[in-house]
Write a structure and sequence with these properties.
Blueprint: E1 21-23, E2 34-35, H1 36-43, E3 46-49, E4 55-56, E5 59-60, E6 71-73, E7 76-77, E8 80-81, H2 86-91, E9 96-99, E10 112-114, H3 118-132, E11 137-142, H4 147-158, E12 164-166, H5 176-181, E13 190-194, H6 202-210, E14 214-217, H7 225-228, H8 231-238, H9 240-243, E15 250-254, H10 258-265, E16 270-275, E17 282-289, E18 295-301, E19 304-310, H11 316-330, H12 335-344, E20 353-357, E21 360-364, H13 371-385, E22 390-394, H14 404-417, E23 422-425, H15 430-439, E24 447-449, H16 453-465, E25 474-478, H17 486-495
Parallel strand pairs: 1-12, 5-6, 6-9, 9-10, 11-13, 11-14, 12-13, 14-15, 15-16, 16-17, 21-25, 22-23, 22-25, 23-24
Antiparallel strand pairs: 2-4, 3-10, 7-8, 17-18, 18-19, 20-21
Helix pairs in contact: 3-6, 4-11, 4-12, 11-12, 13-14, 14-15, 16-17
Length: about 500
């Protein structure tokens, strides 16, 4: 059997459909993009060697995607040193280098700039570029789940009126977020930035770099608990976004999430509330689940209201759409533009994406997982299954720290309570998930604990052959990013 090892995800994921949205890598740049003096001013670095007359193109941290004339920034970490790729960068045409220590290679003739911390220098370069764009409006989005979906929806809406810079995929950490912002140029009206984290201080630094005009926290849920220890720890870390906003920024607040509302109460900026809560300015009523066709609801913004059809499955996507609508309203768009943008949106890759394999409806929700997003996926698939069978194919939820066993037991219980016909599970916590499902009434023949993804695929093939499952049945495939669950779908498509 062909190996199901996860492919490296060094390339950016595809995302978004708006022609008015610029993805990183497709940016129109004003030349010259950087001068040596600008780099020194932005980073506080020390000029080591080469010519000061050189100008650079983009800032790159990856020799594989570096273009001639780019400035190569050599990141360092516990298991790597980007300076080891300095010669390769020059051979590929790098116009200059930023390094943490002087290079001993006398053959390198391009400008070399030394900085104390390359990662911080990367952020400083992005901050410098953002400050140079006086008319740019920056949107910052964080939350335990839904960040990427909200970013995509928001970008589609804002693209109705503005030239928008956004990132592909979820380049949302202290390296990815600055790289997402660096391509901004005077042609851009808005930058939509996603901010993720797994330890305190990361969001604060990203807010310092991006200086957002509009900030949104989608929700606060148990996620990354290995580094944040508790949901209160998650709230405090996410709250760094609101705390990092200037006094005239606008905060978009999920009124359905008591922790997000609690964070907003401590702030003095203008607030736009969104959610089902009747006090929210941006809210949804008369919500109807159309299954695979998406969600239909009435969008209210103040006293205005419009009925819309959202082509994204699951009620959790109504909340995501409301967040995007609140952000877009804060940016000055009319309700008709917001509805037009939302109705153009399509599911983001690996997020409640439905693919049909020999009549089986396979829900690819593989990008990531935490307890709340798992429950949202269960609800969505249970609503869609109808007369067909529903099968949950699950991997571990990672980074949950001390609550991992408890969370995985509840996961199994939820599969049973939502009425799934079968559970196929693998991973470190597979036994606990399986036991939780059986304790909550699933029978032994319905629960299959398997050693790896290859065994999952073989089991599914056997179930199809034995007619346990077939056309019209629904398969949910979900687990944390590190579990690379999408490889199950890839192999299933090849073998059925």
């Amino acid at each position: 059997m062909e190996s199901l090892n996860c492919k490296q995800e060094n390339s950016l994921l595809e995302g978004g459909t708006s022609p008015d949205v610029t993805d990183i890598g497709d940016t129109i740049m004003a030349e010259p993009f950087w001068t040596v003096s600008q780099v020194l001013l932005a980073t506080g670095g020390r000029f080591i060697s080469g010519s000061t007359k050189v100008t650079f193109g983009a800032v790159s941290t990856d020799t594989r995607t570096l273009a001639p004339g780019d400035l190569f920034l050599a990141l360092t970490g516990p298991r790597f040193d980007g300076a080891e790729f300095a010669r390769e960068a020059v051979q590929r045409g790098a116009g200059g280098l930023i390094v943490a220590a002087p290079l001993e290679d006398e053959d390198i003739k391009v400008p070399v700039i030394q900085v104390a911390d390359p990662e911080r220098a990367l952020g400083d370069l992005a901050s410098y570029r953002r400050a140079a764009m006086a008319d740019l409006k920056v949107v910052a989005i964080t939350g335990s789940s839904g960040k990427t979906s909200v970013k995509e929806m928001c970008s589609a809406i804002l693209g109705e009126e503005y030239n928008v810079l956004k990132t592909k995929g979820n380049f949302n950490n202290l390296i990815g977020m600055p790289l997402s912002l660096l391509p901004v140029d005077p042609n851009h009206d808005v930058a939509v930035l996603e901010m993720g984290m797994n330890r305190p201080g990361e969001i604060a630094r990203m807010a310092e770099i991006a200086d957002p005009d509009i900030a949104c926290i989608t929700n606060i849920q148990p996620a990354h608990l290995s580094g944040l220890h508790s949901v209160d720890g998650v709230a405090k870390a996410k709250g760094e976004l609101f705390e990092g906003c200037k006094s005239w920024s606008i905060l978009c607040v999920n009124f359905d999430d008591k922790r997000v509302r609690g964070l907003a109460r401590e702030m003095h900026q203008d607030i736009i509330g969104f959610g089902r809560h009747r006090q929210a300015k941006v809210r949804a009523t008369h919500v109807k689940n159309m299954g695979e066709e998406g969600m239909v609801f009435t969008l209210h913004i103040g006293s205005e209201r419009v009925r819309l059809n959202l082509r994204a499955m699951g009620e959790h996507n109504v909340s995501n759409a409301l967040a995007a609508a609140a952000i877009s309203h804060a940016a000055g768009l009319e309700i008709c533009q917001i509805v037009a943008g939302l109705e153009k949106c399509r599911p983001v890759e690996k997020r409640m994406e439905v693919v049909t394999v020999q009549g089986l409806k396979v829900v690819n929700d593989c990008y990531n997982a935490n307890p709340a997003s798992m429950l949202a996926a269960f609800d969505a698939v249970a609503a869609m299954a109808g007369k067909g069978k529903s099968i949950a194919i699950l991997g571990d939820m990672l980074e949950l720290g001390e609550v991992s066993e408890k969370a995985h037991r509840r996961l199994g219980e939820s599969v049973a309570c939502k009425g799934f016909d079968y559970l196929l599970v693998f991973g470190e916590y597979a036994r606990i998930v399986a036991q939780g499902a059986m304790d909550a009434s699933m029978r032994l023949h319905q629960v299959r604990r398997l050693p790896d993804k290859e065994a999952i695929v073989a089991e599914l093939l056997g179930m199809v052959e034995n007619e346990e499952i077939g056309a019209g049945d629904w398969l949910l495939v979900k687990g944390s990013r590190g579990m690379c669950m999408e490889t199950i779908i890839e192999q299933l498509r090849k073998k059925l």
